[in-house]
UniProtKB/TrEMBL annotation:
Gene3D superfamilies: BolA-like. GO terms for biological process: iron-sulfur cluster assembly. It comes from Amantichitinum ursilacus. The lineage of its organism: Bacteria, Pseudomonadati, Pseudomonadota, Betaproteobacteria, Neisseriales. SUPFAM superfamilies: BolA-like. Belongs to the BolA/IbaG family. This is Transcriptional regulator BolA.
Length: 88
């Protein structure tokens, strides 16, 4: 097991071979809100050639597939901005 949830998310997204990956943990701003179940709130901006030619929905699916078993337990909310390198 990797140390923190943030490190685990980064490791799980590694197969996308991101040119850039920004991950922000916004959990503190949402602590205790109804329905969170203790899971974290994250924003991710990821730039990868794997997203070239894909729709926004297909890009999000790629990210969700890699993180699926963390949602909704360890990750309660995930905001995704997925870009191909030429869009960055």
């Amino acid at each position: 097991m990797i140390g923190t949830l943030e490190n685990e998310i980064r490791a799980r997204l590694a197969p996308l071979e991101a040119e850039s990956l920004e991950l922000h943990d916004d959990s503190a701003a949402h602590a205790g809100h109804a329905g969170s179940g203790g899971g974290g709130h994250f924003d991710v901006i990821i730039v990868a050639a794997a997203f070239a030619g894909l729709s926004k929905l297909a890009r999000h699916r790629k990210v969700y597939e890699l993180l699926a078993d963390l949602i909704p337990t360890r990750i309660h909310a995930l905001s995704i901005k997925a870009l191909a390198p030429e869009e960055f």
